[in-house]
């Protein structure tokens, strides 16, 4: 049974307070790097919506690319984020129930998909807030890498979890979007053979010789912790009457 929104809200307020307000790890930094590169090639005007902004750790940078609205279930955390970042419009609440009253050029959502009850409905809701041709920039956990090569604690009360693989993500997006790019980033493992292959002991001498090309190769064959997807909202076509 899915935990009610109130339990999810309590969990994410606690989690963001204890984690995201204090520390950003390499996984999040790499996701931000990819989105930043995408935004650098996205034409103006840019009205941007970040869905699942957490403590607002990425909002300052996103706001340099356009007018930013950011939303999250963590209402207590967003109060503090709004004090730090007055240039951002923060909206607290359940995204599935919100209406922003306008459409956006770009939606950014990082590691949210796996924490919603109805993933297809979530993707469709994202599309409904984009202008025709608008872009979705999405990051989510890479299911086979987390399941096979990482020890991850079980979800806590109020924390929904359903990871997807590349095929499942493509299927979820295909109804409302044309997928432009889909790839993995940030090789990480804490069990099995990949734990050694991703270790500093193994990688340090190789990086000294070839730089980041080994990591790029691992990402290219799907060994990254994160799946990154850039997708364009499909055009609405009207059928002809017979």
Please tag this protein with its features.
alpha/beta; 242 residues; 7-stranded mixed β-sheet; single chain; 23% strand; Rossmann fold
Task: Write the topology of this structure.
Layout: H1 5-20, H2 26-40, E1 47-51, H3 59-62, E2 67-72, H4 75-84, E3 89-92, E4 104-110, H5 119-128, E5 130-141, H6 143-149, H7 166-174, E6 177-187, H8 193-197, H9 200-210, H10 213-220, E7 224-233
Parallel strand pairs: 1-2, 1-4, 2-3, 4-5
Antiparallel strand pairs: 5-7, 6-7
InterPro entries: Methyltransf_25, SAM-dependent_MTases_sf
Organism: Phyllobacterium endophyticum
Keywords: Methyltransferase, Transferase
The overall strand count is: 7
- Count of discrete domains: 1
User: Would you identify the CATH architecture?
Assistant: 3-Layer(aba) Sandwich
Question: What is the CATH topology classification name?
Answer: Rossmann fold
What percentage of residues falls in helices of 4 or more residues? 25-40%
User: Which structural class do you get from the secondary structure elements?
Assistant: alpha/beta
Largest sheet: 7 strands, mixed
Structural shape: globular
Total DSSP helices = 10
| Helix and strand pattern | HHEHEHEEHEHHEHHHE
Describe, in plain words, how this protein is organized in 3D:
By secondary structure, the protein is α/β, with parallel strands linked by helices. It has a single domain (5-233), classed as 3-Layer(aba) Sandwich (Rossmann fold), CATH 3.40.50. It is built from 10 helices and 7 strands. It has helices at 5-20, 26-40, 59-62, 75-84, 119-128, 143-149, 166-174, 193-197, 200-210, 213-220, and strands spanning 47-51, 67-72, 89-92, 104-110, 130-141, 177-187, 224-233. A 7-stranded mixed beta sheet has the order 3-2-1-4-5-7-6, sandwiched between helices. The longest helix has 16 residues, at 5-20.
């Amino acid at each position: 049974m899915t935990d009610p929104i109130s339990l999810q809200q309590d969990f994410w307020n606690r989690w963001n307070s204890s984690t995201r307000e204090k520390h950003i790890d390499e996984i999040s930094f790499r996701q931000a790097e990819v989105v930043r590169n995408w935004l650098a090639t996205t034409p103006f005007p840019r009205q941007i919506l970040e869905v699942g902004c957490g403590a607002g750790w990425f909002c300052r940078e996103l706001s340099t690319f356009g007018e930013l609205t950011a939303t999250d279930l963590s209402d207590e955390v967003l109060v503090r984020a709004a004090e730090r970042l007055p240039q951002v419009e923060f909206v607290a609440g359940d995204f599935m129930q919100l209406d922003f009253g306008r459409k956006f050029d770009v939606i950014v959502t990082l590691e949210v998909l796996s924490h919603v009850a109805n993933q297809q409905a979530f993707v469709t809701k994202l599309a409904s807030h984009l202008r025709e041709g608008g872009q979705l920039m999405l990051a989510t956990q890479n299911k086979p890498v987390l399941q096979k090569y990482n020890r991850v604690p079980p979800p806590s009360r109020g924390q929904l979890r359903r990871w997807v693989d590349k095929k499942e993500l493509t299927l979820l997006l295909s109804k409302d979007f044309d997928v432009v790019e889909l790839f993995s980033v940030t090789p990480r493992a804490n069990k099995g053979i990949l734990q050694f292959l991703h270790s500093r002991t193994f990688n340090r001498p190789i990086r000294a010789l070839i730089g980041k090309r080994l990591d790029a190769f691992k990402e290219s064959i799907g060994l990254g912790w994160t799946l990154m997807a850039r997708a364009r909202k499909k055009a609405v076509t009207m059928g002809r009457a017979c």
